[in-house]
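Weekly structure sync - notes
Attendees: PM, LS, DV (DV joined late)
Agenda: review two folding runs queued last week.

Item 1: First target. Sequence and structure tokens pasted below for the record.
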Amino acid sequence: MNDNIKNLIIDFGGVLVDLDRSRCINSFKKIGADCIEEMLNPYYQLGLLKDLENGDITTDIFHEELRKAAGKDITDSQIDDAWNSFLVSVPSYKLDLLLSLRERYSVYLLSNTNQIHWEMSCERFFSYKNLTAEDFFEKIFLSYQLHQLKPSKEIFQTVLLETGIRAEETFFIDDSAVNCKTAELLGIHTYTPKDQEDWGHIFK
């Protein structure tokens, strides 16, 4: 870790929250939505899922279009439960790590995500120690709100512009090497952790 680093930008899926693609696909298959498998990628979503994460469609439209694609009369709650099964948990040691890092750095969240996942995560994962998601980060940047997706340069430029932080003083942690490559092109330092890695070692 460079001694000049003042800011951290941290990804959500695969870095903080553990993911289970197989569980998610099986959950959708149980409700008759086999079509989800071709859309669900560990790093970048496709089709309806990409539109949802880019904020191009609302949650209501996503529900309706998924029902059409599946050809089944599936309820909104069934769809949401199946979709949320992609997210397993945020280990408590990572939440404690975030709190300790905030004492040393300005910590930001940058995630390709959607309203369904984010609302569930705020309720289930970030309520740790009676806190809220906002207690763990200086500011939160979510793709569906920004209408921008990693690995575009634009989403990183948005973070730099809105926070006023300098790229050379910033460290980005993301489980996608492609996302990290884009950040590096802008002068941001990066680290790509392995699946379920305890990446806290880079701060010791």
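Item 2: Second target, run right after the first with the same settings.
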Amino acid sequence: MEHDIRPWGQYWVLEDTDTHKVKRIEVNPGGRLSYQYHHKRAEAWTMVEGIGRITLDGVVKDYHAGETAIIPLGSKHRIENPTSEKLVFIEVQHGTYFGEDDIVRIEDDYNRK
């Protein structure tokens, strides 16, 4: 199982096929992913533990366990963990390509390109 540690937390790839990819993502307290978009995939994020503060095309909303955010293709998005507890969510990617090089970062706390 593919696993990667990032400055904001870590993720595991649960499934990777030609039509979709599924990840389990943990965001550390106070951590946030880059504000980004994708050319070749849309995503659905389902919270399973904690609170995810999601920015979607400039609109900020908190999502709780059991709630799902739909990230359309090309939409600018980010998730952060505003709490002192771990945030866990399941990301389902669907589209034509799922490589990490289809991340266009607009803003990043860790100076990644």
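Discussion on item 2: The radius of gyration is 13 Å.
Action: LS to circulate a short write-up before next sync.
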